[in-house]
Each structure stands twice: as C-alpha cells, then as structure tokens.
## 1
Amino acid sequence: QVQLQESGPGLAKPSQTLSLTCTVSGDSITTAYFASGWIRQPPGKGLEWMGVITYDGITDYSPSLKSRTSIYRNTSKNHFTLQLSSVTPEDTALYYCGRATAWWRGEYDCWGRGTQVTVSS
C-alpha cells in the first residue's frame, strides 16, 4: 500500500522560499511510469496543480507558477521536495502531494493528507 506524507513549515514569511517534502512509502518514486506531484488549495478556492517530477526525473510545472517552482527528488530517501520562491500571502493554502498514474491527464491514485502553509509577516 502506497502512502504519502507531506512535511514542512506551517508558516512562512513573505519573500521567503517555501520547501515542502513528500515522503513515500510502499513503493519507489522511480517505479515506471509514475510521477510525483503537488497540488494546493487556497482557502475558499479550488485545487491548483503545481507540478510533477516523473519516475525518470523529468519535471513539468504549471505555467503560472513555473518561474517560482522547483521540484526535485532524493531517490535514496524516496522523497521529493517542492520549493516555491518569493512567497506571498496568496500562496497560503493546503498543499498536497500525490502519485500520478497519468499526470498529463490529471490522474492520481493516492494522496497525502495535506499540510497547511500560511504566509504571513
């Protein structure tokens, strides 16, 4: 059974770089042909796809966030990390990591429980 767990600071200050890590158990993040991705949900708004890193290390990002987003992985620790730079209060959201079976179609088979991030001075 695959499980994902998000971790990271619950609070960030404007202009800082936010780093969130998703630790995966039950399968390797390098298993073909899955991808590991991040989405978020700001308060009172819908889900926003942020980006993915594929089983072979290829990344793809939301065009609206691409300039501020980076996703990388540590295969020895079986986790992947989201970095979001120059955060503002608009980045306040519940952040989720997930495993995608067909990320280009938005198909995911499991998710973490989510972690709340608040951006405030």
## 2
Amino acid sequence: QVQLQESGPGLVKPSQTLSLTCTVSGGSITTSYYYWSWIRQPPGKGLEWMGAIYSGSTYYSPSLKSRTSISRDTSNNQFSLQLSSVTPEDTAVYYCASVGVVTRGVIYWGKGTLVTVSS
C-alpha cells in the first residue's frame, strides 16, 4: 500500500515562499498509475486541487499557476511544492495525494500538514 507523508515548516511569513515535501513509500513516483498531487483545505472551506506531477510533466490550477511549482526527486522518491508570495489566505492544511490516472480520484492521501501564513 502506498503511503505519503508531508513535511515542511508549519509557519511561513507573508510574501515568502511556502515549501513542502511529500515522501512516498510503498510505491514509486515514476509509476504511470498516479498523478502525484498537492491539495489544500483552508480553514472552514473546501478542498482545492493545486497541481500535480506525472512522468516529469507538471499540471497546475489556473488560479495558482503563477505562484506554484511542483518538482520531484526520483532518487529519494519525493515530490515537492513551492508556493511563492504567500498571504494569510494561503493558510491551509496541505495534503499530498496520489490521484488515479484512470479514475481521476484520490487513491491515497497523506495525513496533511497545517501551514499558517502569519508575521
């Protein structure tokens, strides 16, 4: 079974860059079965898909594309998120997830990590 674990700072200052890493175990991020994705949920709001990486290609939400970068480290079986120029509105629980290429639904979720943007 695939397991995902997010890691990174829990507090980021406004205008800085939020950086998170997802470590994957039980499966390879080079597999063709999943889009390796980042999804967030601000307090009191719904889930928001941010973007994904698949076979080295990246896909981003149009609303976040200008501030988002997703990359992967195949040697460590990790993929990462960078969100630049953050504001308090970027405060959210950030999840990494594997999204099925065929089903387009989330197959495995990380536990999530709360990132607060505050000075």
## 3
Amino acid sequence: QVQLQESGGGSVQVGGALRLSCAASEYTFSTYCMAWFRQAPGKEREGVAAVWPATYTDSVVGRFAISRDSATNTLYLQMTSLKPEDTAMYYCAAGGRWYCTSSWRLPGQYNYWGQGTQVTVSS
C-alpha cells in the first residue's frame, strides 16, 4: 500500500516562495509516475507538475520546479513568484507507470493520493 503525506503549505504574499514536500512509501518512485495536483474551491483538480520526466502545466512554467529524492523517498515542489491564482489545496499523487505519459494531467491516472496541504497567496 502506497502512502503519501504532504507538508510545507502555508500563507505567503504575492511574489513569495514555498517548498512543498511529499513523503512517499519506499519504491514508489521506481514504480509510479509522481505528480502534484491542486484544487481551488469550486474548481476541478488540476495537474501542476509531474516526474519523470519533469513536466509542467503552462501556468507554472518558469516558476515551479518538481524534483524527487530517491534516498529519502521525498517528492518536492519548489514554488516561486507565487500569484493569488496559485491559492489551492495541493495534493501529491502516484499512479500509472514508472514514467509519466501525456495523460499525466488526468486525476484518474493516479491510484494514490495524499491528504493535501493548503497554499494561500495574498496580495
């Protein structure tokens, strides 16, 4: 059973930065595509970034960076130049194959989800 636990969310001002972490069960990275999703109130869950290979939704290109540390089984999302529209609950997800496909944005591709961590960006 894969377990995922996010941390690192918080409240920041516009232009600020946060780093989200997702602690994963052993062997998760070698088995599944890993991704970050977000969901704002009243909106659908949106794929933000995935790895491997690293890929991003257009709205975060150049601002967010996804990475993973296989030694500690931790997935990261470094977020910079934050905007109010980045405000959402952020989720870590694992699923599919060990590499991410063009379907990485689809929530249905993922079998396992964390409980989420809230990010709030204020102006």
